[in-house]
């Protein structure tokens, strides 16, 4: 009985020297350009290497296959979004519920819409390369930051900040994805900011009463 081989999604090696870091960054940037120009199904390692200005052999020094490269792209994108949300939470510790909600909602929307085309383009690859695990890890990171923020609120106290943060993060992520898929025009984004902030504030006010 033949055993099915599962292609590794891990990088072949991690860049250690400045030159190697620059090469990997060039490959990732080229992959973004090819993904946006050609789409997920048509992008190839040859085209990516050519756009990055490296040989195909150099590409394979770092990534065993296209799926590993896509996993690295998803990891980088989601990590950057999580980092911005995390910094926003830290910046408003000790603030009011309304200020906290407004800040975290705006930080997340800004991070996702700064490159709305890339955010949309990575949804399909994320599903193919096991992006759910990547997203969960970063969502947990954001959730911990939100929980820590909530415990410092100046106008409320909460018994279960971790559960509240889970609901808040989930409530923001879903609508954001839907709006991105609809085109994310400025008017729609402006309304989303207002409505998500109102949703989060109302939820926390209600939670603080219980």
Descriptive report:
The chain has two domains: 47 residues, Arc Repressor Mutant, subunit A (Orthogonal Bundle), CATH 1.10.10.60; 140 residues, Orthogonal Bundle (Tetracycline Repressor, domain 2). Helices cover 74% and strands 0% of the residues. Helix 4 runs parallel beside helix 8, helix 5 runs parallel beside helix 9 and helix 8 crosses helix 9. The longest helix is centred in the middle third of the chain and has 26 residues. The N terminus is likely disordered.
Q: Which H/E pattern describes the elements?
A: HHHHHHHHHH
Radius of gyration: 20 Å
Number of helices: 10
Q: What structural class is derived from the secondary structure elements? A: mainly alpha
* CA distance, first residue to last residue: 59 Å
What is the count of structural domains? 2
Number of strands: 0
Shape: elongated
The average pLDDT value, as a whole number, equals 87
Task: List the defining traits of the structure above.
Tetracycline Repressor, domain 2; 210 residues; 10 helices; mainly alpha; Arc Repressor Mutant, subunit A; 2 domains; single chain
